[in-house]
Predict the 3D structure of the following.
Amino acid sequence: MSLLRAARIHGFGPPATIKLEELDFPIAGPGEVLVKMEAAGVGNWDAWVRDGRSWLAHSLPLTLGAEVAGTIASLGQGAPLRFAVGECVYGATNSLFTGGYADYVVCSSDMLATRPEGLTSAEAATLPVAGVTAWQMVVERAEVATGQTVVVRGAAGNVGAFAAQIFVQLVPYKVHCTA
């Protein structure tokens, strides 16, 4: 039986609660893919989960990590044909946004995308949560349109930086950013 390493918690609390453990090798189920990890994003979400401040129902023990980048190792039944073994992907892990801090990670196939050429795994792993949050905020919630003037407060953070870039594409030269 193969083992892998994972950064896990057995109780909520400070960073010292994280322990590196060996686990059985996972198998991708229906609609899932197994990703050989190359990089994982580390963000506020991971600290909220670790501290027990997430609004999602997490069961312990759990492996931390929401954002992943790596290579597809295997496909579960029903995984989309758009993916192939050996393909470079990035995205979020699953609907609980956990499980990413491991050598191999089972991910929901609908939460992954093919990694664009020229984007490293480390760069790709920083995008999913902050990038999608910014997109939802700007495009889906605020419905920003061409010709509007927008002020981005907190543009020095990940979500703010992505929001500023999205605004520049939608509303060229009328974006004002503050840190």
About this structure: The helical segments are 44-51, 121-124, 128-141, 158-170. The first helix runs from residue 44 to 51. Residues 113 and 157 are 24 Å apart (CA to CA).
